[in-house]
Design brief:
With 395 residues, the protein is of the alpha/beta class. It has three domains: 100 residues, Alpha-helical ferredoxin (Fumarate Reductase Iron-sulfur Protein, Chain B, domain 2), CATH 1.10.1060.10; 156 residues, Rossmann fold, CATH 3.40.50; 122 residues, 3-Layer(aba) Sandwich (Rossmann fold). 48% of the residues lie in helices and 6% in strands. The chain has a four-stranded parallel beta sheet, with helices on both faces. Strands 5-6-7 form a three-stranded parallel beta sheet. Helix 10 packs across helix 20, helix 12 packs across helix 13 and helix 14 crosses helix 16.
Length: 395
């Protein structure tokens, strides 16, 4: 079993290397709250001050009330690390402090409630397992021939696409792409558990390992070699966290739907024949672009739409703005989420786009709320929905 110590970093050493340049002032949380304690360098200063009091073990830190509030107001967007002049592994620091909060029983009631829901029902909503395939029933799709069947590729649906009404077309869209291109695939159906991302984000790496092990066992049983998902949280969990907690046992290739779509386009199986008249922009999910380095696949797919009118957001790719919904911030402070999100909505408005595509259910949900609050007339689509529209035409 992997030990959490295998990815611990020396907190004091990193805190002491901070040069206080202030470049990380672009932190979305700090931009709204403007308190130094919420600034990345302010968090490092709290850590440095703790160790200055003579504490010896520099991989563990006492999570004070101030540090807890700051670390869980973080969206984990990784913008600070992306711009850090001295290349500090800041995300690992934030993760480690959250691990300490979990290890020392410092989770607040909201985090405990989320964990208990995921642990008991294997989904983030606390809904019955029997409803995990409701998306297929609502879309009129019979998935019995694809459920728990041996196949080289598995479509991991994820909690939001399975249960959230706002994401109702995401899973059916992925299935349409796979069926149209005659990909041999399977789904785990009722045996799919939450990827564990919310538990990992909260710092519960040891607790989240059970989810990783279960999903790996289910995939191995079906002979799966590749897994595709439309969720950036699931993608990051599979790509980054599962190798940490499972080690070499996790040897499955991980694809975002945009990567698979790009591959299918290149080998001639996926043809986007129908033009889309509306102007399109694309919101890079933090977990795809900064965490996992996935930048070009979504753009290459969008470029294949005939006569496409595409305009980048002013802040894009590795400099993309956070939507505000990541890092469990939506659970802890929905008002702050809306404040952070308003900056993104302003950028969407600037492009005069009529469609904003994205590759993340959390981004889609947050942007939907933001454009509604701003009375902005723009359609918010998961990129899988956009692909199907270009594949089948408007209906």
């Amino acid at each position: 079993m992997s030990s959490p110590a295998e990815w611990h970093v020396d907190l004091l050493e990193i805190a002491q290397k901070c040069v206080y340049c202030g470049y990380c002032s672009l932190c979305p949380t700090f931009k709204e709250l403007k308190w130094e304690t919420y600034h990345p360098r302010g968090i490092l200063e709290q850590i440095r001050m703790y160790f200055s009091e003579g504490v010896k073990e520099s991989v563990q830190v006492e999570v004070s009330k101030s540090l807890f509030e700051a670390i869980f107001a973080c969206t984990m967007c990784k913008a600070c690390e992306n711009i850090c002049l001295v290349d500090l592994p800041l995300l690992k620091v934030w993760e480690q402090v959250r691990q300490e909060a979990f290890r020392k029983g410092r989770w607040n009631p909201l985090l405990l409630s989320l964990y208990n829901k995921v642990k008991s029902t294997h989904n983030i909503y606390g809904l019955p397992t029997e409803e995990r395939l409701a998306w297929a029933n609502l879309a009129g799709m019979n998935m019995s021939r694809r459920t728990k069947k041996k196949a080289p590729l598995a479509f991991f649906v994820g909690c939001q696409a399975s249960y959230s009404g706002k994401m109702g077309n995401v899973a059916p869209s992925v299935v349409k792409i796979l069926r149209k291109t005659k990909v041999n695939f399977t789904i785990l159906g009722l045996d799919e558990w939450c990827c564990g991302s919310p538990v990992f984000l909260a710092g519960g790496y040891s607790a989240g390992r059970d989810f990783a092990k279960h999903n790996l066992d289910q995939l191995k049983e079906l002979g799966v070699e590749r897994i595709v998902t439309a969720c950036s949280g699931c993608y990051r969990a599979f790509k980054i966290v599962y190798p940490r907690v499972l080690g070499e046992k996790w040897d499955i290739e991980v694809l975002h739907i945009t990567e698979l779509a790009e591959e299918l386009i290149k080998n001639g199986k996926l043809k986007l024949k129908h033009s889309i008249k509306e102007k399109i922009t694309f919101k890079d999910p933090c977990e795809l672009v900064r965490h996992c380095g996935l930048v070009e696949a979504p753009r290459e797919v969008i470029k294949q739409i005939p006569n496409v009118r595409f305009e980048e957001l002013p802040s894009n790719k590795h400099e993309a703005l956070c939507c505000g919904g990541g890092g469990l911030l939506k659970l802890n402070d929905s008002d702050l989420v809306n404040q952070v999100n308003s900056r993104l909505v302003s950028e969407i408005k600037y492009t005069e786009a009529e469609i904003v595509a994205n590759g993340c259910p959390t981004c889609k949900d947050t942007i939907l709320t933001g454009v509604k609050n701003d009375n902005l007339d723009v359609e918010v689509l998961d990129i899988s929905e956009l692909i199907v529209r270009a594949m089948e035409g408007e209906k």
